[in-house]
Every structure is written in C-alpha cells, then in structure tokens.
Amino acid sequence: MKQKLVLLFSFLQTFYALAQIQGTVKDSNNTPLAFVNIYIENTYTGTTSNDNGVYELNVSAPKTYTITFKYLGYKTLKKTVAIENFPYQLDVILQEEEISLQEVVVKTNENPANKIMRATIDKRKENLELIKAFNAHYYSRGLLKIKNAPKAILGQELGDLGGGLDSTRSGIIYLSETVSKIDYLYPNKLKETIIASKVSGDDNGFSFNTAMDANFNFYNNTIDLENPLISPIAEYAFNYYLYTLEGIFYDDFGNLINKIKVTPKRKNDRVFEGHMYIVEDQWTIYALELTTTGQQAQIPGADTITLKQNFSYSQQDKVWALMSQNIDFSFGMFGINGEGHYTSVYSDYNFNPEFSKRNFGKEILSFKEEANKKDSLYWEINRPVPLTEEEIQDYLKKDSIQTIKRSKTYLDSTDRVSNKFKFSDIFSGYTFSNSYEKWSLGVSSPLSALNFNTVQGFNSSVGIHYTKNIDEFKRYFFTRATLNYGLGDQRLRGVFSAHYKFNNISRPYLMVSGGVTTQQFNGAEPISKLINSISSLFFEDNYMKFYDKSFAEISFSKELFNGFKLYSNISYERRKPLFNTTDTTFINESDDTYTSNNPLDETAFGIAPFNTHNIFKFNLSATFNFGQEYFSYPDSKYTVIETKYPTLAIGYEKGFGAFINAYNFDQLKLRIFQNVELGNKGDFAYNLRAGTFFNAEDIAFMDYQHFNGNQTHVSSSGSYTNVFNNLPYYSLSTNDKYLELHAEHNFNGYILGKIPLLNKLNYNLTVGAHALSSETYKPYQEYSVGIDNIGWGKFRFLRLDYVRSYQNGFQSDAFIFGLKLFN
Fold first, then answer.
1. Looking at the domain 17-94, which fold is it?
2. Among residues 529, 573, 514, 518, which one has the least CA distance to residue 700?
3. Is the pTM of this model over 0.90?
4. Domain with CATH 2.60.40.1120 in the chain
C-alpha cells in the first residue's frame, strides 16, 4: 500500500508539474509575435513566446488566473481564465498600441524628449540603488546559425562543424539551454548556481549561457559588450546622444509611457541606437530596444548587436523588474556569415532574501551535481520558452547521431579524411589524429620556420609533437622534439620537452626539457625571428644577439589557493659564446654593415662577452590576483578577469654552482600591474617592476636584468606596457637595483570621436609614459602618443605611435608601427 501511495503522489506531482497554459500569440493580421512577455498578474511567474509565437506557462494547480500579455508596440492584454483541466489552450490576438503625440505640449524652445531623459538621468542612481537584493530563477537559450559557410578557410577545412551544416553549408552550429538560480546584493554582488544545462549533440556538455554574461543594466553608465558602451541614460549621455519623443501610451496600470528615439551624435562612438520607453513621473525604464554595430563596439567579427529588455511592475514590491531579455546579433568574417539569438527569462523574484555579503564569496558561478544529466521530462517542465520546430529538429538530429559520432567506426572514418596529406600541409605542417583514442602526432613545416640571423645564417627547424588528451581535455600529456640546423654555422641543435597537466581546477603543470639551442641574451626575446630576418637581410640591422645554451630543466606550477599561483624551476645550463658566421644581405648599403654578436660592444668582432661556463639556476615566483573571482564547472575552474584590483608578482632567482665562482648571484623581483576600465574615458594600464641583485658584481651578461627595447620601429608584442619602444635592446641592462614603470591610456574614441571628419575613421587615441631607473645609469624616460584601431572595415590590426626619449636631456624620437596581426 505504501508503494502505491508513493507512486500515486509521484504521479500527481508530475501531473501538476506538467500543468500548462499554452497557446499562440498573434497580431491582428494573424502574424505570430515572438518574445511576447506572458505572466500571471501581480507575480513574477512568466514566460515569453518563441519565434513562432508559441508559449507555455507552467502553473501549479487548476484555479482562476489572470494572464497578462505584454509586447512593445501592442496594447497589453489581460485574460482571466478559470482552469479546471490541463493543458489549457489560450490563444490571443494583440492589437497595436495607439502611440500618439496629441497630449504632449511642445514648447518652441524645449525638446520634450530632453526633459524626459534629463529626469531619467537625474533619477538613474536612485533607480540603480532601489533594488538592494533579490534572488530569482533564470532561464537562457542560445543559438548560433551559419549561412553558406565556405568549405575551407586559409587552407583549413571546416567540415560540417559537428553536424550543424547541411548540404547548403548552412545550419545551427550551437544550441544550448540553462536553468539557474541567481542571488544579487547591491551594488555588484551576483552569484549564480546552474541547476540544469543542456547542449545539443553533447549529453556531457555544459552550456556557457549564464546570467553573468547577460547582466546588462542600463542604469549603469556603461554596458560591457566586450568593450564598454555608453548607456543612453548615463550621467554624461547628452554628450553622445540625441533624443526624440515619438509618442506616448498608457500601460495596464495607467502609467504614461514615453517612447523615446535614441540617436547617436556620432555614429562611430561606442553607443547604441533605437528606442527607450520611459515611465512618466517614475522616470524608470519600461522597456528598451537598442542596437549597436561591430564598428561602434569595436568587435571586428560582429555586424550588428540588438538588445531588447522588458520590465514588469510589482505593486507589492514597488519596483520594475527585468522579466525578459533578448540579444540578437549578426556576424561575418573570412567568408563565414551567420546570426545568433540569446533569450533570457527571469522569474520567481524575491526582493527580501535573507542574505548578506557573507553569502557571497569569490565563487560566483557553480553547477549543481548532475546538472548536465537532466532528462527530457525535466526540460518539458522547466523550459519557459517552447522550442521552435527548427530547434526541436536540431536536438533530435544531433542527439540521435551523438552515439554514432562517438563510435570508433565513425571517428576512424572522419580521421581518414582529415589525415589525408594536403598541399597546404607543406607550409603549415601535418598532423595525424586518432580521435577515438584521443591522441595526435604531428610534424611542423621547416618552410614556416625558415629565418635568418648572422650567427646561424639561414636556418630552420622541424618539430615532432605528440598529444594525448585525457578526461575531456582536462588532463593531457604533450611532448615535442625540435631539430634546428643553420647553414651559416653548419650546426645541428635539438630540444626536447614534455609536460603534463594534472587537472583543470588548480592546474598543476609539470614540465621537463633539455637540449641545445641558441638563446637571446634577453630571455624575454624582445625581437621576433621574422622581424630580425627582415631587418638583417634588407637593412643590415642584426639586432638579435645569441649565445649557445645546453640545458636540462624541470619546472612546476600550480594555483595553491584562489588567486595565488606558484611557479618554480631548476635547471643546469652550459653557456658558450657565439660569433657571426655570415654577412649575407639582400640589400648591401656601402655605408652600413652588420654589428658583432657581442651585446656589450657592437664593434667587438670575435670577442666573447662572457666566458664559457656551467651553472645551476633556481627560480621561485608567485602571482597574487587580488579579489579574483571564478566560475566552478565540474572538474574545472575558470578565473574572471578582475580590473578593480592589481596583480602582484614576486620572484626570487638564484645562480649557483657555477664553474666560475663570480657568476653566482641572487636576485629579488617585484611586479605590480593592472588594466583599469574608466567607462567612456577609455582604458588605463600600468606595469611597475622593481628588483635588486646580491653578490652579482661580475656575473655573466645573460643573467643581468634586461629591459625590452625596440630598434626596429615595428611593434608586434601586442602589449605597450612591457616595452621601451625607442630603447636599444641592451644599452641599460643592469646587475644592480632597478625600477621600471610603464603606463598607457587608450581613450577608445573619447577624444578623436568628437572631432568632425576625423571621427568617421573610428580611430583611438593613445598616450603613454615609460621610465627606467638604475644605480648604474641616469634615469631614462619615454613618452608616446599614438593612433590605434587603424585599418579598413573589420580588419583593423594597425597602430602608429610617435615616441620621444630622454636621458639627461633629449635623446631621440621615432615612429613605431604596430602590427596586431602578430599577436
């Protein structure tokens, strides 16, 4: 009897859980309306209609409900229904809203829209602070579609992208859903727990649709869409927008709603365009529909991005709460064009939760156990927005072939295709994969590694690499062997390395390596092989200086606790001097010649800058990211980039056991760096280094502290806060105390965007200051002003800087050409 009761209660629970009000929402022309807000009056139980106007509203029990249908541009409709049986069919037709200007008194000297927006901006901070705390349930669905995809990009075949592309090279390549619980505490505490996660075609997958990524609050001054964009109600919004009152209407509570058209003053500013709906007297957001472009947001791959938000008023809580949000975007690059949709629904708000700051730690996202194992019944019950027919078919197709695609037979067949040698492999290298056993073996192309320097002459490398992936790529083993041969010195060198990653939470790495190689005196390698080859062969400027290093090394790194990472290594090295072996050049100028390979004296041909020696080296360093927050995925941890606090790095380096006793040394290092977002003012970054040596009066030159200089007038590092762009590479190297400072501000259109005609180019102004102080030399300073985001259309990979340097007076100036293509 007890078992029967259990089954009965289980049945009743399932029955009520499946209880639904369902139907379609259309306009007067019988056209389905997508993303209509549908909710029970005076509650936060709701849903939205899908692309086909179909909705499902889950309710708890048969009784009388008042259902509200709300959609921008249409009159809000309320239906009171007495429900006795489920499912209950309720189809509705919405009538267009009568938006009128008849009741607006327009003064000749005043724009009514400006008055409304000023009042809204004045109350922005109050509205931002109105909701002190809440918890709620959150649902999100994300979809990416591609149209007419090419078969290959830059010689690399795309395949069918996991079964998403049909014979026309079009289709859904990503479809996923998330159900989560979110907790919020003013001003910026947000914690999310993923209850359920579903990815089409991957029953072990975890959706990346989170409330964190969709947290766009227009009461803030800026909205972060990869880059910060100015809100139309920011405190300085009148510097960026024009406003027009297009009409008014009344909502179901009798509130007067103003429809405001938002227009950018300058189209290339980081701004939006579209409409905001403002509640009269309350000066709150009723709804919004705003669009930006990839050019405005400086997101190269994006064409347009549209944000839609709808709010609902709670008479009990006296707040306007976000009920739904839709993000629609289109993209295109390298022949791949498509579109995406992200739908979010917020429900079951509680504005009086019992928690405080103690409830919020550094873990801001986590997953419930078995979150990705929910069955179809669960999703039928908890999915507030019905799937479209296209989405249903995508789930059915990909889920049905999932087992097949994981089978050895299928994986072997795809490997047979991808493992075929192609002509492009001559230049890019060849890799043989065994997808079923999760390993690959490859060889690099010596053509892509061909370069020139005056020590080795023309030289190239060929490498063999092996990778074994374990536990869905969370653990892996990787090994590589590389051989290098120089025609100039007729010397074959080789390096072997192997490393193992233990897990994807604290990320412990163990690496062993050894061999013989040519090494730049500055281990940070401030000049690339490609740029050195060009500067040598065409301009006879052989800036890259080498020594010969035979070594064996073991290193280990791990995050000991949140935000604190430890790195250590110990090595044995034999160092020998090298000399120029060739004077080959493509352009030989009579008044120019190569310099020696001695970084201490460019005229010291055949003179070694150090004596051949052996030495042991030990390094121990740690970084601490203050305030680091993170996402906890099952068996994985992902840190969130934190700009509010700096990162601190400390290190200790010791050279010991050298055959030449004077080459032993100790060095302490300190570094503090940070990138700070300053809203509409741009981004500021700084990097501060300091250090000191002990017992290092006569150490080998490669153990000095070297500073990243630049003599090529080309920057390919990507970071301008780690280099002196007008400093010779080894002119200020030191074995004493030193202090190094870099600071740069990128205005991101704040200045150039306001200059007529020039603002059409969508360039960014940058300014920088750099300083270096040592007991060995007089202080060195460098100042720069530059233009970033130079290019055409979506391809903006150029930057140009003018740099002036000073050391006991003016030294020199230069133009630096930045190539972000090399990043």
1. Immunoglobulin-like (2.60.40)
2. 573
3. no
4. 17-94
